[in-house]
Amino acid sequence: MKFLRSEKAASEVIGHVIILGLTITGVALIALIGVPSIFSLQDMANIRNAEQAFTVLDSRASIALLGESPMQVVDINLGGGTLAVKPNGTGRESYMIIGRENEGDTIIIPMGKMEYRLGDRIVAYEGGGVWSKYPSGGSVMLSPPEFHYNGRTLTLPAINIAGDAAIGGKGAAAVYLKKNGTKVIFPDPYQGTNRTNPINSSISGTIYVNVTSDFYDAWADYARSLLYTKVRTDENNRTASIELTVVPSGFGASTDITYPVSFRGLPDTGAPLDNFSFRIYNNNNFNNFNWDIRAKTGNRILIFYIKKNPPNRVELMVGYQDNDNIINPSDGETWGGANFYIQTDAKGSYIDVDLLDISRNLTYQNENVGSTNANLCQQPVSGTVRGIRTTADSWSNIYINTSNANKTQSIYNVTQHYIRKMAEGGDIFFFKCAPAVNNEQNQNNEPADDSSVLVDYNPVGAITFLYISDNKADVTAG
């Protein structure tokens, strides 16, 4: 009998084994890779839901804490995460510190927060805003905080969270927000610490707001999105530092001459000034009058110098020096020849010097600009601006030398040009310089007590009004 040899059956068995192996491998790969991915997608969806719920909570909180409603309730789906109310005193403090330059009066407002955690993701309500933190450590703002600044007014209704709640699980949690009082902190004239509006720039030139928070970097990003703020961060201390410049007082009105004559938040484009003028009285009919005001920003110096020009006039001279742009530091850009007549009223002899006078001219010429023998020059700079450059090359699109027609410019043009150049270096502070000592004779070389100055301009990012309140919130969840 003859047997036939065949391998068909073996091939079929091997095929089934291969298919089974591939199936098992596929299932294993799904278990190892797919299931975690599914869970990750679920977590992402839960985080997204929490972010949306916290955004709703933010708007409801504003109604309850800053509006008329006594209480608001918001449902938040936990999705396997945890929800906790964390007032200050429970670790990882969050608070604001508001301070003013040259003032010992510091305002500290605790913020606290309500926090949702799922794995290594965090969503929180803090300071009236909603924030999200990522595993990398970076955070972003989802909804802006109660921090409103338009370049002139800072309104800061700080939210101060209190409560004791912690809940976790898969279901939904009801969050209750209840107002527990509001305290106006600024302005508050009863404090006796200059907590009044408008803010006095001669006392407080800068407002500082320091925010300490786990979301400090997102706070900083938000502050940078506002106009006219200076922002720094400190990672080690979890702090965003926000700096706001104060508008000088007395805008648009004559005030006594005090030093420094300050220009804060001055634009460095176009014609920065609207008014800059002096009414100067002198007890000695301006005999031997020899006075200037001078400012320094970086390596730039600007001097407005007034001296007696007998018999019945005074002369205005202007000197500018930029040590960054010239080869010889003794060279400057100097102007002279603008005269103002001495007048008289019931108070005595006076002159009106308008540094934005468009009808009087200055001439680009060789001068020594600055008070002579000035042994009591206030800081920041003493001495004079001497000589002239062959070309005043800091003027845009204008060629100036001592022999062409451009050597004559209105006082208005000269002042606006150099103030603009100085403003490129920041705020400007004019100090006095006069050869005065503590005796009556030499004090006649400078303005008498009845003298006044008028300064007016449209400041860029200079705060005038400050409103701060502490709004306490009781937050519970269940």
Written account of the structure:
It comes from Candidatus Methanoperedens nitratireducens. With about 475 residues, the protein is α+β, with helices and mostly antiparallel strands. The chain folds into two domains: about 40-245 and about 465-475, no CATH class; about 255-460, no CATH class. The protein is built from four helices and 32 strands. It has an eight-stranded antiparallel beta sheet, with helices on one face. Strands 8-7-6-5-2-11 form a six-stranded antiparallel beta sheet, with helices on both faces. A hairpin with a 6-residue loop joins strand 3 and strand 4. It is elongated and about 120 Å long.
Fold topology:
Blueprint: H1 8-66, E1 71-77, E2 82-86, E3 95-100, E4 107-110, E5 113-118, E6 121-126, E7 129-133, E8 139-143, E9 148-149, E10 153-162, E11 166-168, E12 172-186, E13 206-212, H2 216-225, E14 230-234, E15 239-246, E16 254-256, E17 261-263, E18 273-282, E19 290-297, E20 300-309, E21 313-322, E22 333-341, E23 343-345, E24 348-354, E25 361-364, E26 368-369, E27 385-386, E28 408-410, H3 411-423, E29 428-433, H4 440-443, E30 452-457, E31 462-463, E32 465-477
Parallel strand pairs: 10-32, 15-31
Antiparallel strand pairs: 1-12, 2-5, 2-11, 3-4, 3-13, 5-6, 6-7, 7-8, 9-10, 12-32, 13-15, 14-15, 16-30, 17-29, 18-24, 18-30, 19-20, 19-29, 20-21, 21-22, 22-25, 23-24, 25-28, 26-27
Organism: Candidatus Methanoperedens nitratireducens
Pfam families: DUF7289, DUF7308
Protein name: DUF7308 domain-containing protein
